[in-house]
Amino acid sequence: MKLLNKITFGLVALAAMAFSSCSNDLPEFNDSDAFVALRSSSVSFAENSEGTEIDVLLTSLNGIEGSVDFEIVPDSLAPAVEGKHYTILNDSKTLKFTKAAPTQTIKIKAIDNDTYGGDVRFTINLVNAQGVKLGADKTVSVTIEDDEHPLAFMLGTFNAKGNSYFNGESEWQIRITKDDSDVSKVWIYNFVLGGSSSSSPIYGTVSDAKDEIRIPVKQTLAVSSSYPHIWLEAYKGEEGEEDVNDFIVGVITTDDDGDAIISFPDYWFGSLVYTDDAATSTAGWYNLFTNGVVLKKSK
Length: 299
Description:
single chain, mainly beta, 8-stranded antiparallel β-barrel, 5-stranded mixed β-sheet, 1 helix, 22 strands, 7% helix, elongated, disordered N terminus
């Protein structure tokens, strides 16, 4: 019976297609649902950059004419101020669309300064559409990144080299980003090759002299449905003879360009898998590096 129903349905569908193919009537379209919308929901740029451009698109079948205004709302916690942090380069805050120009751009120029005040933000809202509707994507969050961060010399991508206990000499990339609220704290991605997840960065705290970074052990490096914990664990000493229960200490120096070099001469560290919630039993290491891992900032 199920097979017969499927065959019958297929025959009916074919008949309907054959009937429709005989008709010369084509569906009629109109632009009653034409709308304007932003291409992105969030953008960011550095204060020492040129700035950014934000596209606003008209979606229309026949290319009708219309317009939309945009308004700027400073963030309540870290407000970006027009004229101080950025400048709008558009002649007006009204964008006009035509068949020949279905995309318009909000142009933002960065204003650089020499002091650190932290990242600032504002929101752009599309409002007051004329001749078209507003689409669902009518708000974009804009972040201006402060380039005078005290740890700017050690933020970015690093080339890492080290000796894996299992795989020998290894090279990989590590990314270090700032913390939004603590200027002495950084977040580290892919710290352990083959044992880290991009969704589980770990943090480190940089000394006031900027010559050390302390990375607490037992931070989560990855999450697995098979194991309750995948943690950063470490040993200290030439042969890894001493357990580390607090943190790994990295030595920070700089190259001729002032970019950071971070080395771990006294520590073995890796990604250890625990099989119980109390972290008393392990399934082994995803990877373990012996002392001497060095990170050099990419150019």
